[in-house]
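Whiteboard transcription, Tuesday session. T.W. wrote the C-alpha cells on the left side:
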C-alpha cells in the first residue's frame, strides 16, 4: 500500500513484524533512525527533506493492534514514520555570526531539550549544540516538546573542548553571573543542568549571565531562563521591544 510517498507492501498485522521491531528499537535507541508521530509532523519532515524509511497509517497499511503496540502517545494520531536521523554540523552552527547559537550543558530532561529547540526556532538562533550529558533532541519526548521545531533547527553534538576551540564568545547562565544582556550576534549562550547549572569547565571559559528577578523565587527552570535570554537576544538583534 502506498502512503505519503512510501510503499510498504501488504498490511502489517503482527506486532512481531520486522518493521515494527525496527520502529520500537528506533523509539528506544534513536541512534541512526528516529520515529515521528502524527500526520502533520510526518508530512512536514518529508517536506523538509528528511529521508523516510517507512510511513504507516493505522487501519491502512497497518492494523490497529499492531499500530498501537508502537505508538508513544496516549492519543495516537494514526500516522507514524520511521526516518533516517538527520546530522547537522556543529562547525556550521558555530560559523554563523549574524545570530547566536545555543549550547546545552548536561540538560537531562528531554522535555527541556525539546522546548529549548523550539525556543531556538522562535528566536532565530543558529542551532542547538548538545554538550556531554544532554538528553537527545531526537528522542520521542524531545521531538514532541519541540512542537515541530526539530524539523528546521540544526542540532549537533560536540565536546567541551571543541566548543572552547571554536573561537566564538561564550556566555553561560549562572546564579552568580552579571545581570546584563545576552549577545545579539556572534556568540554562544550556554544553559546548564537543571540542578547543578553549567559545569565548572564552562564557568571558567565563559562570561556568566544572570536573569534579574524577584527574591520571591530562588531560580528558574532552564527552559524559562532560555526563553527570557533568547527573547532578549532576538529583540536586540532586530531592534524590537
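and on the right, the sequence the group agreed on:
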Amino acid at each position: 500500500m502506498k502512503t505519503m510517498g512510501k510503499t510498504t507492501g501488504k498490511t502489517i498485522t503482527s506486532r512481531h513484524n520486522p518493521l515494527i521491531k525496527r520502529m520500537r528499537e528506533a523509539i528506544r535507541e534513536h541512534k541512526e533512525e528516529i520515529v515521528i508521530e502524527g500526520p502533520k509532523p510526518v508530512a512536514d519532515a518529508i517536506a523538509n527533506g528528511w529521508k523516510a524509511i517507512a510511513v504507516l497509517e493505522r487501519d491502512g497499511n497497518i492494523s490497529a493492534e499492531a499500530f498501537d503496540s508502537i505508538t508513544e502517545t496516549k492519543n495516537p494520531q494514526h500516522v507514524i514514520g520511521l526516518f533516517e536521523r538527520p546530522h547537522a554540523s556543529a562547525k556550521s552552527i558555530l560559523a554563523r555570526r549574524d545570530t547566536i547559537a545555543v549550547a546545552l550543558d548536561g540538560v537531562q530532561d528531554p522535555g527541556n531539550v525539546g522546548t529549548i529547540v523550539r525556543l531556538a526556532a522562535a528566536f532565530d538562533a543558529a542551532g542547538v549544540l548538545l554538550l556531554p550529558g544532554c538528553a537527545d533532541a531526537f528522542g520521542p519526548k524531545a521531538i514532541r516538546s519541540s512542537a515541530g521545531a526539530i524539523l528546521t533547527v540544526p542540532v549537533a553534538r560536540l565536546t567541551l573542548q571543541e566548543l572552547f576551540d571554536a573561537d566564538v564568545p561564550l556566555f553561560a547562565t549562572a546564579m552568580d553571573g552579571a545581570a546584563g544582556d545576552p549577545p545579539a550576534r556572534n556568540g554562544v549562550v550556554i544553559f546548564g543542568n537543571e540542578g547543578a547549572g553549567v559545569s565548572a569547565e564552562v564557568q571558567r571559559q565563559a562570561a556568566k549571565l544572570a536573569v534579574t528577578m524577584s527574591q520571591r523565587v530562588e531560580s528558574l527552570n532552564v527552559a524559562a531562563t532560555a526563553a527570557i535570554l533568547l527573547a532578549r537576544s532576538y529583540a536586540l538583534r532586530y531592534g524590537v521591544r
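Someone added at the bottom: The mean pLDDT is 92.
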